[in-house]
Each structure stands twice: as structure tokens, then as C-alpha cells.
Design goal:
alpha/beta, 234 residues, 28% strand
Length: 234
């Protein structure tokens, strides 16, 4: 493409075969290198010393600034911000913009998925095969195979550990029913006042009421049973 040929002519760009950079992408960095089959979408801002491997994508409105190194198969969603530099701020008498800028840089491993609206700050390393959930603010290194999210980002799960099995609703209800059948007689016993041969409202006031008897009968009826204690005549 003519646009990519112009970029290559500057001597600042290395673009792998079958890679696409939208003419509407803002490519302002001092150095750019990508492998084969990469894509940089319209309205993304690349103001970085950026090197990335093959099969990477940077979607619309993503912002990459500073020094960034990433492997292959990295997917960066829209509105993500990856900021590989920092302003100096130690001198209280000097405005921020007059203090030195530091570049620790950001490193991203292979096969990483960075969600929408993620922020990754300078000095962070994101391990291979990780997922950064949408909206996460990453201020510390992310180990390989991690799923992280939140602000600040925290570990949600190691991808190498299987998800807990998805139990069917029928199984959950059956388990709940078995547990309720096991425990309900104890609950009714606690509500029964043997000295007065009646069920009472609660443990504190221990007052007799027809409601307490109705509740006992209704609970037992769920299991096709009757309360174990005799029904009082009213």
C-alpha cells in the first residue's frame, strides 16, 4: 500500500508481510517494528518505541506510548492505554513537564488478550498467555497464564486451573432438597415447646401462635410429611 510504503521510506518502520496499518492510524513513534499478519486499526495512536511479533492486533482508539515490547499473538482491544513512560515528580519546585521523563518500558509476552479500557502503566511485565479483563488498571507484573481484573488489577484465576464444573440447575435443586430434608426436622424441633405441646414463634419470645403451627405443617408438607409432634387442638 502507498501509505505503508511512505512509512517504510522514513526508515523508522519495519512491517512484516501481510500486515496492515490503517492510513487513519496515528503513527508518531520514533521506531516501529511488527512481524507478519499484524493489524493496526483506524484511530489508534502509536506514539511509542514499539516492537511486536506476528499476528498482533491493535484496535481503534487504543493508545500506546513510550517504550513497549510485545511478543506474537497479542490482541489489544479498543480504548486500551499502554503507557511505557513516566513523568518525573520528585522536585516540588519544578513543574512536571520540566522534569525528566523516565522509560522503564512495558513487556508483553506471547498470546496475551488485553481487554477494552485497560490501563497498563510503565514498568509492568505481562506474562504470556494472560488475559487482562476489560477496565483493569495494571500496576504490577502479571504472571503467565493469569486472568486479572479490577483497579488495581488482581488475580482472578490461573488459566491452567480448570473452571469449577457447571452444575445443572436440576442437580443444584436436588442437592438443596436433600439438604433441606435432612435439616428441617431439627429446625422444627427447635421451634417446639414440649412443656406446652406447641410450636412457638421463635427462640426469644417463645410465644404460641397458630402461625407457628401452620409454618411447621407447611414445611413438613414440602416433603410429603407431617410434623413429628401431634397437632394441638385450638
Amino acid at each position: 500500500m502507498v501509505w505503508q510504503e511512505k512509512l517504510l521510506a522514513t526508515g523508522k518502520f519495519r512491517i512484516g508481510n501481510n500486515s496492515y496499518i490503517s492510513p487513519k492510524a496515528k503513527m508518531l513513534g520514533p521506531h516501529f517494528s511488527c512481524g507478519e499478519n499484524c493489524m493496526i486499526a483506524a484511530d489508534s495512536l502509536i506514539r511509542a518505541d514499539l516492537e511486536m511479533g506476528e499476528h498482533c492486533s491493535i484496535n481503534s482508539f487504543a493508545v500506546l506510548v513510550g517504550k513497549i515490547r510485545m511478543g506474537s499473538m497479542v490482541r489489544i482491544a479498543s480504548h486500551a492505554s499502554i503507557v511505557g513512560f513516566n513523568h518525573g515528580y520528585e522536585d516540588l519546585d519544578t513543574p512536571f513537564f520540566c522534569q525528566p521523563v523516565t522509560y522503564n518500558g512495558i513487556t508483553i509476552g506471547d498470546n496475551v488478550w488485553i481487554g477494552a479500557n485497560v490501563l497498563i502503566v510503565d514498568g509492568v511485565t505481562v506474562g504470556a498467555h494472560s488475559i487482562i479483563a476489560a477496565g483493569a488498571v495494571v500496576t504490577k507484573d502479571v504472571t503467565e497464564y493469569s486472568i486479572v481484573g479490577g483497579n488495581p488489577a488482581r488475580l482472578i484465576r490461573d488459566r491452567r486451573r480448570p473452571r469449577s464444573s457447571n452444575t445443572s440447575v436440576e442437580t443444584l435443586l436436588s442437592t438443596f432438597g436433600d439438604k433441606a430434608r435432612e435439616e428441617y426436622p431439627h429446625i422444627l424441633n427447635d421451634a417446639y415447646d414440649a412443656s406446652r405441646n406447641c410450636y412457638v414463634d421463635n427462640q426469644q419470645n417463645r410465644e404460641f401462635s397458630s402461625r407457628a403451627w401452620c409454618d411447621a405443617i407447611e414445611i413438613a408438607a414440602f416433603f410429603n410429611e407431617t410434623p413429628h409432634h401431634s397437632v394441638r387442638s385450638f
